[in-house]
Amino acid sequence: MTGRPDTIVAPATPPGRGGIGIVRVSGPATRAIAAAMLDAVPAPRHATVAIFADAGGRAIDAGLALFFPAPHSFTGEDVLELHGHGGPVVMDLLVARAIELGARMARPGEFTERAFHNDKLDLAQAEAIADLIDAGSAEAARAALRSLAGGFSREVGELAERVTELRVFVEAAIDFPDEDAEFLASDEVRERLAEIADRFASIGESARQGRALRDGLQVVIAGRPNAGKSSLLNALAGLDAAIVTDIPGTTRDVLRERIHVDGLPIHVVDTAGLRDSCDAVEIEGVRRARAEIGRADLVLYVVDAVLGLGDEERAALPAGTAALMVWNKTDLPDARPAPVLEDFPAVAVSTLTGAGLPALREQLKSAAGYQADAAGVFSARRRHLDALGRAQSLFELAAARLAERASFELVAEELRQAHEALGEITGAISSDELLGAIFSGFCIGK
User: Fold this and answer.
1) Which residues of 28-63 are buried (b: 16+ CB within 10 A; e: fewer)?
2) Does 71 sit behind a cis peptide bond, omega within 30 degrees of 0 on the bond before it?
3) Which of 78, 140, 237, 279 could form a disulfide with 30 if both were Cys (CB 3.0 to 4.6 A apart)?
């Protein structure tokens, strides 16, 4: 970090009552704060039983104190942790005392931000901390832990190194223009291009899997009244999340449920039946349903297999949104076979018997591009995929120029830009606006 930072303090445990509450202090005044509150600075990295005292020497609390001297701490600065009783009053008093002694309240994510600036971790690792905290499944937690351990950063770093080596090779050829043809035809160049292309494909696939684990799939259940939308939600969730009756229009508002399919988080939204109505409440429900459809990653359009797919329903099919037709009630004797529509795939199910639901779950995973048994998946975000995509496009453009014997200067510039795009992932190249946006999403105290 540039300049001398101030000292920050914040609770490191969630607000509310708990058996243990932790207050964390980091910065140059940490030793002085420890001496004032504890009567002495604890031995480094040893849990010390202590009284946490106020300005008058009266006990605020008693617990364990841990001191981590710089640079061997999470932030790279002197860090003090006070492990006391987890009541909100106690936590507030400890934070207030540290502020009296020269600290200030930390911003969200500021401890991790300092760790990034002090080279304790890179930006992808810092984001993985938040992803690990927010993980909604064991698979997502494992992916975040791989990124936190530096696996994703190492893969990106090695790819960036290969791109730079190719750029150096190209720039060397610029200095020897008479050898262009030999350079273009060399096995070394072909091997380098193939290796980099393979690395882009491999890292991109792992990142897409990781983003699916982190963000999940936004699925909206839509269709005509009484097609079985709420029954489908209940079947997917494995509980009675929605009221189910034979009365059309029972669902009048959106209902949300979070489920997991082999570790993939899916945010399922049940909506009001799509039909014309004179009922003001139902009209509003239909409006909200159409709004949810517009935001969906995938629409499950439920059709009553007995009634079939009529012209009115065909007109109501969502346009411009990925959709899957769920041909429901296939257990009934009058059920018709699902139609084959080129741009509207179908899966036949019975929410009553459960038939077809395993196939539907596989379709959901396929829509997210998710493979449950994929190994080496890293936690990833949209910005990572965007940066990877830009870097890959620039590399492919450079490779095409090489094949066409185009200007080596342009090839070298495109490889330089590809390297910079990869640097955005780990924070080797970053802006203050990007850092502010990332760390503002962290909890205070982390």
Assistant:
1) ebbbebbebbbeebbeeeeeeebebbeeeeeebbeb
2) yes
3) 78
* pLDDT tens for each residue of 171-209: 777 666 555 556 655 677 788 889 999 999 999 888 888
178 CB-side CA count, 13 A? 0
Report whether pLDDT(97) > 70. Answer: yes
pTM of the model: 0.76
User: In this predicted model, what pLDDT tens digit does every residue of 340-370 receive, in sequence order?
Assistant: 776 778 888 888 888 889 998 888 888 877 7
- When the pLDDT of each residue in the chain is averaged and rounded to a whole number, the result is 83
Phi, psi of 217 (to 5 degrees): -120, 130
Q: Give the model's confidence band at 316: pLDDT under 50 very low, under 70 low, under 90 confident, else very high.
A: low
Query: Do residues 217 and 364 lie in contact, with contact meaning Cβ atoms separated by under 8 Å?
Result: yes
Distances from the Cα of 310 to the Cαs of 314, 317, 324, in angstroms?
Answer: 6, 11, 16
Locus of tokens 């002085």: 32
Q: Of how many residues is the chain composed? A: 446
Quick check: 123 and 427 in contact, CB under 8 A?
A: yes
Q: Distance between CA 184 and CA 262 in Å, rounded?
A: 47
- What 3 state SS string does the chain have? CCCCCCCEEEECCCCCCEEEEEEEEECCCHHHHHHHHHCCCCCECCCEEEEEECCCCCEEEEEEEEEECCCCCCCCCCEEEEEEEECHHHHHHHHHHHHHCCCEECCCCHHHHHHHHCCCCCHHHHHHHHHHHHCCCHHHHHHHHHHHCCHHHHHHHHHHHHHHHHHHHHHHHHCCHHHHHHHHHCHHHHHHHHHHHHHHHHHHHHHHHHHHHHHCEEEEEEECCCCCHHHHHHHHHCCCCCCCCCCCCCCCCCEEEEEEECCEEEEEEECCCCCCCCCHHHHHHHHHHHHHHHHCCEEEEEEECCCCCCHHHHHHCCCCCCEEEEEECCCCCCCCCCCCCCCCCEEECCCCCCCCHHHHHHHHHHHHCCCCCCCCCCCCCHHHHHHHHHHHHHHHHHHHHHHCCCCHHHHHHHHHHHHHHHHHHHCCCCCHHHHHHHHCCCCCCC
> Which residue type, as a one-letter code, is found at position 260?
H
Q: Which residues lie closer than 8 Å to 259 by C-beta, 6 or more apart?
A: 236, 237, 238, 265, 266, 268
CB 377 within 8 A of CB 143: yes
Q: Which residue has the tokens 């009529």?
A: 310
